[in-house]
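Protein in question kept underneath.
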Amino acid sequence: MPQGKPLDQRVVVAILASIDAGKSRNEVAREHQVSASTVSRIAAANARTFDRTKTKNATEAAKADNAALRASTSRRFLEEANRFLDDLHRPHTVFNFGGKDNTFNSKEMPEPPIADKRNLITSAAVAIDKHLAVEKHDNSGESNAAVDRWLTEMTGL
């Protein structure tokens, strides 16, 4: 594979100064208009490493935010399931559009019709299943979601 021309030593020194200033590899590459692999090679050749504390902290914050959002969503599934079950025994308006004059008719019933009850029960069951799936995920021995594992692998932390 053809190689580009060697970098001027002043550019290498400037890149090392940027690394020492705590900038990320990609930020250094953009600043000096070189590839990220060039920055990595220069860093390795000069015994420099990149501070990944910010990345690690951001990853941990993202994990915590995701867990909080999953808990909130899980709670909403459970609340919806309970609302569906409560609706099984509440007054229900049945209605119909139709006829040659496209008329609207409605009637208040003490409870929903059987077909509507079946739909309410199915909806409640699905919501409970989703709640349990989130709970199982967050309470499993393996606390990282696939995305969390991917972030960990990508950042090397």
Notes: The chain has two domains: 9-45, 53-155.
